[in-house]
Design a protein that fits this description.
Layout: H1 14-19, E1 22-23, E2 32-33, H2 38-47, H3 53-65, H4 67-92, H5 99-112, E3 116-121, E4 124-129, H6 139-150, E5 159-161, E6 170-172, H7 185-201
Antiparallel strand pairs: 1-2, 3-4, 5-6
Helix pairs in contact: 2-3, 3-4, 4-5
């Protein structure tokens, strides 16, 4: 959760990095929202390789013409993110998502999956969202990442929450023995190391 790098991507899955767009999630004093404008949402989406630079340029131009619609998309993105956060946090604690959150998540699935289509990619067929100029075009791939993770029976146990307090970030543990504890060893992991050294010295 480095303050100097606003686009720290440590979640190992697109949906995890999307969820982690709030610094110091579980601190009332230090919590910092990244998506303070529609432009910030677009900028992050480019960094996450969800949007191309040209798509971003087109979306920002459209947002200037329809600021109220852009604001609605921003609110929608933040609401989806918070629903996903609550769901995956509970999963990281080995409990089931809240029924209301799952219902709201499914509303997003129903809405965006209308734009799914089967296309041929060389010698195989794949499911892909139609490319549109809609202001919410960055949300379907993020939603797809969450759906893929939720429906991967053997991978959900790798969803974890950083042990750094009050970090709150979530990540997908890719370590062989599932031993990862921190969002980043250079961040929360290092703070914990310094804390242990200090306490040992005392």
């Amino acid at each position: 959760m480095s303050e100097t790098n606003p686009y720290m991507m440590v979640g190992e899955r697109l949906c995890m990095d999307f969820i982690n767009t709030v610094s110091w999630r579980e601190s009332a004093e230090k919590r910092r929202e990244w998506f303070t404008s529609y432009a910030k949402l677009v900028d992050w989406s480019v960094h996450a390789e969800v949007l191309s630079a040209q798509q971003a340029k087109d979306l920002l131009s459209e947002a200037e013409k329809n600021p109220s619609k852009a604001e609605d998309v921003l609110k929608q993105a933040i609401e989806l993110r918070e629903v996903m956060y609550r769901m995956f946090k509970r999963i990281s604690k080995k409990t089931s998502p809240n029924e209301q959150d799952l219902a709201r998540f499914n509303e997003s699935v129903s809405h965006f999956y209308q734009s799914l289509q089967v296309i041929q990619d060389e010698d195989q067929f794949i499911l892909k969202f139609k490319e549109t100029d809609a202001l919410d075009t960055m949300l379907p791939p993020i939603l797809q990442s969450a759906v893929d993770l939720l429906t991967s029976k053997n991978e959900l146990e790798r969803v974890k929450q950083c042990e750094g307090d009050p970090c709150g970030w979530l990540f997908f543990d890719t370590s062989r023995n599932k031993s990862r504890r921190w969002c980043s060893m250079a961040d929360c992991g290092n703070r914990a190391k310094v804390r242990r050294f200090y306490q040992k010295g005392k």
